[in-house]
Amino acid sequence: MKRSTERILTTHTGSLPRPPKLVEMILAREAGNLVDPEAFDATARAAVAELVRKQMETGIDVLNDGEASKVGYSTYVKDRLLGFGGVSALRLGMGDLREFPEFAQRMFSQVLTTRIDAPACNGPISWKDKRPLSADIAYLRAAVSGVKPSEVFMSAASPGVIALFLQNQYYKNHEAYLAALAKVMKDEYDAIYRAGFVVQVDCPDLAMGRHIQFPDASTKEFLKIAEANIEALNHALRDIPPDRLRIHLCWGNYEGPHHKDIPLKEILPIILKARPSAISFVGANAQHEHEWTVFQDIKLPDGKIIIPGVLDSTSNIIEHPELIAERLVRYANLVGRENVIAGTDCGFGTFAGMNTIDPGVTWAKFRAMAEGAELASKQLWRSARRVARPAARKAVASKAARPKTRKAAARVAPRRASRLAAKRPSTRKATRRAARPATGRSAARGAVRRAARPAARSTGKSAARGAVRRAARPAARSTRRASRLR
C-alpha cells in the first residue's frame, strides 16, 4: 500500500454520486422491475469511467469505482448471495434520535426518499451469482487502464455490517451468523485482491452499531460484540497481506445529533487488532474532530496507517484548504507524516438515490482536500528539512575534523606539516629577508599609519591629516639617505 513518503496522499471512503440514468436503473431493479442487462452493463461501465476521470481531475491519489453499480454499501450482497429471502426486519434503534422525535421524523422524510430493501437471513448462506463482482472488477480495470493513479481500491461489506443491516433469523446466534458470512465473503475479498486492488472492508458496525443496533447495551457488552466481529473479519482476510487491506469505520453517515456515539478511544484498541494496515475513520464532523488527541495516548503500531476524515460527508459546506491542512498536520505530528493519508468521513452516495450532498459540492470538496494536502505537505516537509540541515552540517564537520582510521591519520599528518611549513620561512635566504629592517617606501607607509592612529583618535580628521604630513617628512628623508648609501 502506498504511503505518504514524499507528500500527503489523498483518498476517500468509497461511494460517490452516481449518474441519474444509472440510479434510475438500480432503483428499478430494487423494486423488482426488469432491466436490460446489456443496457445496465454499458451504463455502469460508462459511469465508473466518468467517476475515475473526475477523481483524477480533483486530485484524488488513491481512487476507486465509486461503488457505482451497487444499491448500497452493505445491502448489495442480498443480490449476490442465497439465504436472504426473509421479510425485511431492519430495525435501526438510532439511539441519538430518541430524544428528538420531531427532528427524526423530518430527517427520515427528507433523506429516506427511497426504500432500503434489507431482507432477513432465513436460510443457509452461499453464493448465488458472482457475475456482478466480476463485472465491478472489469469496470474498474477498464477505467484505470488509461490513467495513472497512485493506487486503486475497491470496497466490500464486512461480515459485521451485513449482520447489522440484514438481520439473522436462521443461525443459532450472532457468532454463527458471522462465521457463515465470513466464509462466503472471503471469496469476494480474495477476488478483489487478486485483481490487483487494495481491499477496503466497510465496518461501520464497529462504531455505528453501538447506538443504532445495540443502543441499550453497555459499553462492555458492545465491545465484546465488536471483538467477535473483528475475529470473524480477520478469519475472512487471512490470505491477504495486511498492507493490501483498508478498514473503514464510522458512526453513521447522517446529519444527526450523534451525541450517543461511542468515543474513538473506547474502540480503537479493538480496531488495531484488525488485520488491515490502514484505518479510515471520521475526523471532520463536530462530534469527532477533537479525537485526534486520542493518538497522544494510544500509540499507532508499526506498519499501520491512518486515513482520518478531513471532509464532512454530511454537510454541503466546502472545507477551507487551510483547515484541512491544519487537521492533517495535527495527525502527522503525532503518528508521523508517512503514516497519514487524507480521507473523508464517509461516502457521498451511501445508498443510490439518497444523496445529501450535491454532486458538484462533492467534487469541490475533493479539490479543497487536494489543496489542503498540498499545504500540509509543504509545511511538514519544509520543517523536516530545517531540522535535517543543521544536523547534516554538524555531521559533515565532525567527519572532516578527525580521520576515521590510522592509515587516514598517517596520510593527513604530512599534509598538515607541509601547510605549516609553508607559513614560515624555510631557507636561510628567506630568514635573512625576514630579519632585515624595512626600508624604502614600505617603511614610510608604515610610519605614516602608526603616526596617524593616535592623532585620528584624539583630534579628528584635520589633526590626523596634519600628523600624517609631519610624520611623512622624516620618513621620506631617511628613505633618500638609505638609497644614497646603497
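(ticket continues) Second input and output from the same batch:
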Amino acid sequence: MRPLNKSSSRKKFGRRKKKGKGKAYKAICGKCGKDFLIGFKPKEDKPVLCGGCYRPKRANHR
C-alpha cells in the first residue's frame, strides 16, 4: 500500500477555489418593479424576478 502525502491527496480530491465577489448587475423585477442586484447580466428579452417574487413562483411549481 502506498502512503498518501499531502500533495497527492490534493491532486486526487482537488480543492475548491474561493470565489470572490463577482460583478453585480442592476435589474428591475418583471413582476413588482423593484430595483435589485443580481450576479449575472440580464437578457432584455426575458423578465427577471426579485427574490420575493421568485420564491412564490417556485413553491407553486412543485
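Agent notes: The chain has a mean pLDDT of 77. Helices lie at 6-13, 51-61. Closing as not reproducible unless the customer responds.
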